[in-house]
Design a protein that fits this description.
3 helices, rod-shaped
Length: 145
């Protein structure tokens, strides 16, 4: 765990150092291309470099603890979001599996009901055909007799 904080601390310091150096290079470039007399330019460069140096010392001197908490807090929040998303996905998957089981059960029950209904219909149709034949037989025997 200590190694992780050292890595985060190292990244934070590297990022901040890069930001300071980039800011200094940008400021110096802007000053060099600004139309100012030599003495005024040197004074402003001196002032800006002292200001940047103080900011860097303050940043690395006592305030870097705050900078290391920012990535740690962000990592904790990201971990919480990932964990929450996994839990939601697991819940959705379980609900989907339960719905699938319920649908299969209902389909099986419905197919059994359809088969029973079809058998009843066949029996009723056969009984109807037999009754019709019987009536036709009775009508023919009355006509013949």
């Amino acid at each position: 765990m200590k190694e992780d904080s050292e890595v985060v601390n190292s990244y934070a310091k590297g990022f901040l150092l890069g930001a300071l150096v980039g800011g200094a290079v940008g400021a110096i470039t802007a000053l060099l291309f600004a139309p100012k007399p030599g003495r005024e330019l040197r004074d402003e460069l001196s002032y800006r470099s002292k200001d940047l140096l103080e900011k860097g010392q303050n940043l690395f001197g006592g305030q870097d603890n705050n900078a290391t908490h920012i990535p740690n807090d962000g990592k904790l929040q990201a971990d919480a979001v990932v964990r929450n998303a996994r839990e939601k996905a697991d819940d959705l998957l379980q609900n989907a599996e339960q719905m699938l089981r319920d649908a299969k059960s209902k389909a099986h029950t419905a197919s059994g009901s359809v088969a029973d209904g079809l058998n009843k219909f066949k029996d009723a149709a056969s009984a109807g055909v037999e009754a019709f034949k019987q009536e036709m037989s009775n009508v023919q025997s009355r006509s013949n007799g």
